[in-house]
Automatic annotation (TrEMBL):
Residues 164-273 form the DUF4218 domain. It comes from the Eukaryota. Coiled coil: none annotated. This is DUF4218 domain-containing protein.
Amino acid sequence: MNHRKFLDPEHKWRFDKKRFNGQIETGQPPASLSGTDIEELLSNFENQFGKKKKEPGQKKVKKVLHPVESSDGLHLEIRAAIFDMTNKEKDLFCSVLKNAKLPYGSASNISRYVHTKERKVSGYKSHDAHFVLHYLLQFAVKKSLKPEVAIPFIRLGAFLRGIWSKVIDLSEIKRLQHEIVEILCQFETIFIQAFFDIMVHLLVHLCRELEYGGPAHVRCMFPIERYLGKLKSYVRNRSKPEGSIAEGYLAEECLTFCSRFLGGDAGSKITKPAKFETIPEKMEYHIGTRRNKDGKAIHLEESQWMAIHRYVLFNCGNKEVESLLE
């Protein structure tokens, strides 16, 4: 896919032959089609089922990927791609994901999907990939990939966080559109054509979706998928899943009503306090020195803990916190 056509007409990458396909790009981005336009285009379309036979011909491969003669001149060797990682770099990449400490409730335990011995990451869910692309990938590739490969991934993470923000300015959408086009053009100079499937190309159209539908987090499917997983757990009879879900949902509603009716005397998940909500009577902290890092335990009463907490809030120097306090 050629994403240079989405660049500005005077952009320097349009005239760069060496890094791209060897041609100057003069094309313009395709016009936006409405539903009726798409219907007219597909009215006489005939779908040919089955695998399409590949036509013989020479494929265009970048010169940097051409095989070269070995030192002894007896056979050919394939050069390592620019995004290839050594075993040490793979270990570093996996260690970042394995040892990442995430806030409570932000994501699942991503470390269980990282296999350090095999040097691979597998078995993760869609929300895990979402979180990695937003926050963790930029740290993992910073030291494990070359700068010309790591920078586009870091920019991609910033772009995804930008379209996922709760408040987006219209002028910011235009900047994000230029940003993602340049990122995809950088990917074209790094990866082969097989990398650019339809999912990679859809990044170009995300900014237009923001203009039509608003912020992306409002239309997120993760909460719905999580609730569908909860309903799936109600299934006890696989031959009649709908009835099992109905009975499980009804039982859950009855238990919720009884818990709220009985109040705080009955211990249940409705009446018990949430995690990290209550403050214990005595809180214990270890204060150490450079020589003795373990230190000794210091017991704080609730009033002392609240006083320390307020002192930190009023003296942290954070503008956002100060605006909330005002």
